[in-house]
Write a structure and sequence with these properties.
The protein is built from 15 helices and 15 strands. The protein is α/β, with parallel strands linked by helices and 412 residues long. Helix 1 crosses helix 3, helix 10 runs antiparallel to helix 11 and helix 12 crosses helix 13. The longest helix has 32 residues. The structure holds ligand SAJ.
Length: 412
């Protein structure tokens, strides 16, 4: 089967690679000329374990090449970004639409088109299907259109693309069957057939589920601080109940999924999606909550921020709450230094903490779980740590630790 994949990023390139391990020939299309040239040399531009070897082999065996323009194929897969439009809480479909338009000159009867990019519910039916219909194709008869969202974890993409179950949402049942034929070549997880709109909503709800649960944990942290209860102890004990899983409070929710996808649902039903919007607001309020507590710990002075990534052990800082917290602190006149060995391998703990009065932990990197407390005591006069990720269990004498378990001590 010849496959044309539009967008050679974190999802498109690994997907292309996996098709080449089967009886497929793949063209990977990208608008970035530098990326295309690199890929055609058998080199890759993103970091993902296990990917480099497959692309190198596929290029050598002529099973993969990259191009700036699409080519005739049996199946087209769209894996381009869908940025968030903050003004109307919706998703920007312009890249997806222009990717669909770019394949029109090559499209033939019998072809399958799969949208993988995360999109708002109803997008495939209302905005993508008409692009093909306007060219005279009947979807479900001449060509087959489906939305099949990805759900993988960076660092484990090559494994998860093969083994995770996948939702396959066709415009018609025939469309789903054709999309299953495409993925069935390398996916070993279950390929679950449904409608396009159900697939779109499921993807958005998976991330909304997590966002809402994190909001509940964050609200508990705030209540604990207000009424004098150790929220972390509450979580630990409540989670011993076999059907309870309270998530972990933090400095806010970052990343390009949880902080965005819930809005795609909210934009479709703003009067009804109350819990979804309130959860977003609660999670968005966490940077302010952190800053308010920092003001109580030290009203002025130098602060060392530990962690810029939106989650632990990654260099991904998209939508990271750390930047909002830093900007707010700088506005208040605090002097800020940062330490994040994943984002900036040259950053160093000694320099960051030198003459600081407070360390604020904002990412759960492994490096922060066991800090060099002797060094901290040497470099800081009265060391205080605010751990917003609840990763430090205990500190030696001479160091003060605040976390979401004891913030109430700062009240009044
Ligand atoms: N966070 C908390 N408390 C928690 C868990 C997470 O504050 O208890 C914060 C993290 O620190 C981070 C944010 O939430 O700032 C998001 O982290 P995450 O690991 O939950 O989510 P993502 O955005 O990295 O990945 C999600 C995943 N979706 C689900 O778990 C339902 C992933 O499986 C998806 O592939 C990805 O979105 C996606 O592409 O949609």
């Amino acid at each position: 089967m010849k496959i044309c994949i539009i967008g050679q990023g974190y999802i498109g390139l690994p997907t292309a690679a996996l098709f080449t391990t089967k009886d497929c020939n793949v063209v990977g299309v990208d608008i970035n000329e530098e990326v295309v040239n690199k890929l055609n040399k058998g080199e890759i531009h993103i970091e993902e374990p296990g990917l480099k070897e497959i692309i190198k082999k596929a290029v050598a065996e002529n099973k993969y090449h990259a191009s700036l323009t699409p080519e005739k194929a049996d199946a087209y897969i769209i894996t381009v970004p869908t940025p968030y439009i903050s003004e109307n809480y919706s998703c920007d479909l312009s890249y997806v639409k222009s990717a669909c338009e770019s394949i029109l000159p090559y499209l033939e009867k019998g072809n399958t088109i799969i949208i993988e990019s995360t999109i708002a519910p109803m997008s495939t039916d209302n905005e993508i299907k008409p692009i093909f219909e306007n060219e005279g194709f009947t979807v479900g008869k001449d060509i087959y259109l489906a939305h099949c969202p990805e759900r993988v974890l960076p660092g484990k993409i090559m494994y998860e693309l093969v083994h995770n179950d996948r939702i396959v949402g066709g415009i018609t049942p025939e469309c789903s069957k054709k999309a299953i034929e495409v993925y069935g070549q390398f996916v070993e997880g279950e390929l679950m057939e449904t409608e396009a709109k159900t697939a779109e909503m499921s993807k958005c709800m998976e991330n909304t589920f997590r966002d809402v649960n994190i909001a509940l944990a964050n609200e508990l942290a705030k209540i604990g601080a207000e009424i004098g209860v150790n929220a972390l102890e509450v979580i630990k004990l409540a989670n011993k109940h076999p059907r309870v899983n309270i998530h972990t409070p933090g400095p806010g929710v970052g990343g390009h999924c949880l902080a965005i996808d819930p809005y795609f649902i909210y934009a479709k039903a703003p009067e009804t999606a109350k819990i979804i919007k309130l959860s977003r607001d609660t999670n968005n309020s966490m940077p302010d909550f952190v800053v308010e507590n920092i003001k109580k710990i030290i009203p002025e002075g130098k602060i060392a921020i530990f962690g810029l990534s939106y989650k632990g052990n990654t260099d991904d800082d998209r939508e990271s709450p750390s930047y909002e917290i830093i900007a707010k602190l700088e506005n208040l006149g605090y002097e800020i230094t940062t330490y994040d060995p994943h984002i900036n391998p040259d950053s160093n703990l000694n320099e960051a903490i030198k003459d600081s009065e407070l360390i604020v932990i904002l990412s759960d990197h492994d490096e922060f779980k066991e800090l060099d407390y002797d060094l901290i005591k040497e470099e800081m006069e009265n060391p205080i740590i605010l751990d917003t990720k609840s990763i430090i269990q205990d500190v030696p004498k001479g160091i003060t630790l605040y976390n979401y378990g004891n913030l109430y001590e700062l009240q009044g």
